[in-house]
Write a structure and sequence with these properties.
Elements: H1 8-18, H2 22-27, E1 29-37, E2 40-43, H3 44-55, E3 62-71, E4 74-82, E5 87-97, E6 100-106
Parallel strand pairs: 1-6
Antiparallel strand pairs: 1-2, 3-4, 4-5, 5-6
């Protein structure tokens, strides 16, 4: 976890990943929320759950936020990720709608 300040919905996603709580992860998203992992877009509760089970929580992921910048509803994160699928630093662009996340996008590394 991180001592950096991020909007509560973004922190809920990080906490759910680090707490291995798939239900909390899915609940952190809007009904039409999506995860976009390098262009692979998974939408709605089933899509969000699928990504959590295969690429995040089901892979034993731990996410450490290293930097966070928020402008309006969009938070850009630099994070360290450790899992059985991927290890290393990456970026995410997280869009918040009200008290939920509407989009969690991990763009390809440049």
């Amino acid at each position: 976890m991180s001592d950096l300040e991020v909007p509560a919905p973004v922190q809920a996603v990080v906490d759910a990943i680090n707490g291995a709580d798939t239900e909390a992860f899915v609940a952190a998203f809007t009904a039409d929320g999506q995860v976009d992992d390098w262009g692979r877009v998974l939408s709605g509760p089933d899509g969000v759950r699928s990504w959590a089970e295969t690429d995040a929580i089901g892979a034993g992921a731990q996410m450490t936020v290293l930097e966070a910048t928020t402008e309006g509803a969009v938070t850009t994160l630099l994070f360290d990720w450790r899992s059985s699928v991927f290890n290393g630093q990456s970026h995410a662009v997280v869009t918040v709608d009200g008290d939920k996340v509407s989009s969690f996008r991990i763009p390809p590394n440049e």
